[in-house]
Amino acid sequence: MANSKRTLFLKRRLRVRNKLRKMANGRARLSVHRSNKNISVQLIDDLNGVTIASASSLEKDLGVLNTNNIAAATKVGAAIAERAKKAGVEACYFDRGGFLFHGKIKALAEAAREGGLKF
């Protein structure tokens, strides 16, 4: 079995990331990771190699009871938008990794856009 789920995921992640790097123009990258139980997001400055802001469904101050649903993803998206504003970042590009843009990933992106991030 040459193309397992994992290898297809890794190929998709690299394809998405390489396309986004070409269009970056020095903007920060909003990188999303989703596991079976949690969702986390980081705002990364690739030029300097530092994380500007991050948010996760594991954080107690977000008040997330069930960490694996769309409501949790929405709260994480709103939190990262607020933290990005405090850090002075208004525009970034959305790196969904190898995850498909629907469900929790889409809810996180829409909440971040409503919070004021532009991508």
Textual characterization of the structure:
With 119 residues, this protein is of the alpha+beta class. It is globular and about 45 Å long. The protein has a 4-stranded mixed β-sheet with strand order 3-2-1-4. 29% of the residues are buried. It is 39% helix and 21% strand. It has a single domain, classed as Nucleotidyltransferase, domain 5. It has helices at residues 5-22, 70-87, 104-114, and strands at residues 28-34, 39-45, 50-56, 92-95. Helix 2 (70-87) runs parallel beside helix 3. Strand 1 and strand 2 form a beta hairpin. The protein contains 3 helices and 4 strands, in the order αβββαβα. The longest helix has 18 residues, at 5-22.
Question: What's the structural blueprint in terms of helices and strands?
Answer:
Elements (H helix, E strand, L loop, with lengths): L4 H18 L5 E7 L4 E7 L4 E7 L13 H18 L4 E4 L8 H11 L5
Parallel strand pairs: 1-4
Antiparallel strand pairs: 1-2, 2-3
Helix pairs in contact: 2-3
Family: Belongs to the universal ribosomal protein uL18 family.
Subunit structure: Part of the 50S ribosomal subunit; part of the 5S rRNA/L5/L18/L25 subcomplex. Contacts the 5S and 23S rRNAs.
Protein name: Large ribosomal subunit protein uL18
Q: What is the terminal-to-terminal distance?
A: 37 Å
Give the tally of structural domains.
1
- Distinct helical segment count: 3
Low-confidence spans: pLDDT under 50, at least 5 residues? none
Mean pLDDT comes to: 92
Q: How would you describe the shape?
A: globular
For the record, the CATH class is Alpha Beta
Report the C-alpha radius of gyration, rounded. Answer: 14 Å
How do the SSEs run, as a string of H and E?
A: HEEEHEH
Count of distinct strands? 4
The biggest sheet amounts to: 4 strands, mixed
Spatial arrangement of strands, main beta sheet: 3-2-1-4
Q: Give me the CATH architecture, please.
A: 2-Layer Sandwich
